[in-house]
Amino acid sequence: MRRLTVMFLLLLVAGINTVICASSAIGAPTDAAGFKRNHIYTPVSQLTGGGLIVEWDQQLQEIRRIPINAEGTTGATFNDRNNLVVITRRADRVRVVEYDASGTAVNEYNTGQGSLLLGSYIDFDPVRKIYAFADGNRVTLLDKDLRFLSSTPSLFRRASGIAFADDGTLYVTDQLDDELFRLDANLVTNLQIYAGGFVPTGIDFDAAGKLLVTYFGDGRLDRFDVSTLNAETVVSGLGYGGISDVLSLPSGQLLTTDDRNRLNIFTSSGMLLSQTPGVGRFGDSLAFLPVPEPSVLAMLAVGLCAGMLHRCRRFRRVLKSRHASEMLASGANVLENNHIGLIPSLPPIGCWTVGIARRNTL
Prior knowledge:
- The structure is a single chain.
- This protein has four helices and 24 strands.
- The protein is of the alpha+beta class.
- It has two domains: 2-26 and 295-361, no CATH class; 39-289, Methylamine Dehydrogenase, Chain H.
- A hairpin with a 4-residue loop joins strand 10 (138-143) and strand 11 (148-151).
- The longest helix has 24 residues, at 2-25.
């Protein structure tokens, strides 16, 4: 029985090590050419024709350019496959296209429209695994493989900004009627108000759940409390076309584009930190591939470690038994004084992120 207990504990420690290693490895692409986490991507149209996906680091240093088959580009977002999904025009039709990191189109949805309306944005809900995009005077939902799900009626003169809230509701701007809409999960409107400015376009939620709204016509960026609909101005005075889309970065900084194809980074309070030169003919959207939050499995592993520490006395008695000593003689590192050590014979030790802990601190 004791031997089985020790074997179970060894397997448990090995499993926790594996889970934590896997969690710590999340964020690194599988190859050097993949889309990089914590990098910024902007789809643009080239001056000479065709399209590009331009990669930037968070200091706005250009990293590389990925050619894509596109006659024009606008909204972009990442999906849960870490591919970039772009609203683009090619073969004389507006399409929603999923690109891998080589610029190859792996999925697409043909809207049937001939004219690409710039300032038409898209967002992905990773919980329901669906897209919502501005589709002229409607908002359209697609599944994870870009298959049609549903559309709103013709609610908008021209739908523009799109953002999912954490609760699954959808916020949309109408850039011609200067309105802000809130739609429920069934695309039923439960809020329709004046957006507070001229030509509202890009929107995004910050880490505090506040809604960021850009005003292309006013050259302004506001932050809304969606529970009270009170707004504060974060950036102003940029002039017509001085801001089109916005992304809230994990650092709290705000990333924007303008009609000169420039990227701009502001502090959360609106101070300009850096700006790029213009790139391409027009690039009005932004996409960012973040490092994911710690996984449920990693948190479970920490909980399992805590449970093991809580049973330290029983575990220590087993380790002192003759059978356990025979099994662990090759290198078990068990410390007295209510400590538990890691077992160096279980690779890879370098991945451990849970250190030695005292039982009496739990």
